[in-house]
Amino acid sequence: MEWITRTITISPKQQELLQKNVWSPNFVQAYMVIQGKKELVKLRYRGGHTREYPKKSYEIIYKGRTYHYNAEYDDPSMIRNALSFQFFQWIGVPSPKTRYCLLKINGQSLGVYLEIEAVDKRFFRQRGIPVQSLFYAGNDSANFGLYNPDSQSKKASLFQGYERVIGKQADINRLKSFILKINTLKGKELGRYLDQRLDIDNYLRWLAGAVFTGNYDGFDQNYAIYLHQTRLKYRMIPWDYEGTWGRNCFGKQIGSDLVKVTGYNELTKKLLAFPLIRKKYKLLLNHILKRHFTVKKILPAAKLMTRHIAPHIHSDLTRKWALSVFDGEPEMIRSYILERRNFIKEAIRNL
Length: 351
What we know:
Oligomer: single chain
Strand order of the largest sheet: 1-2-3-4-5-7-6
Distance between the termini: 41 Å
Structural class: alpha+beta
Number of strands: 11
Number of helices: 10
């Protein structure tokens, strides 16, 4: 694995603007060394609760291309996002590419960061996927339901929880119509509609990925949904998988039985009510258990990532976790896999 250093410079005025409001969606101007040249870029903080941490994550735009730099501050292993996206690729779901780097701003080393490929037009172009529209699910209102998850009141808009990235107003209306119909159609009519408008195989693989990795927040937010331009079916892409492999998004250790195999959103509930789709999902879970979700396959990848970043983590004083915790993470992930396998095997029998 190749190591890279990302070097950024920002003027005092622009840095003051950036730090004035960590929640601001606005970009400031900065310079970044790209392919040996100092290039003008746009920069802002990114993330949810992590924006108030001492070690922040960044989003950078250069000539229409977006770069994400995650501090992975809550994850003592620093590999959960990268390992999860690797797992999704194994099971046939397109997911962002990642690589580790050292980040420097105004000559100060900020330590190890995870560079994550943005899900945008370039993401689809590189994979030869024609895309009509793309939306990010930014909060738990993106639960494919008609009601707010907290108050249980009817949503003011069925677009609540989403951010448009690619597409027009007509594409927003199409997504709202999709959500409305999956909640109002019944029986065979609903089955036909889902078959026409949703890539069910992709959806079940995405669902399985969130289930196996244990991402409690991955069902009603932290995903991207796009409309395939020629097939006109919705497909799913994972995003933000830091809270996985036995820890939640704050880094707290959680039980391997926390996340149900049926996930937590209205669309999954509608799909799995159909016996044929439920049977297909059970076969998929069994296939992944046999071929991909094994200590033999996952642990070498986890250990390779850990060895790659270990020298830099051991000298990175910006991390909040003790080195002993970092060093013990591969074994913790191993234990999670073994326990999760047993839980999923039992759950399949009762599905």
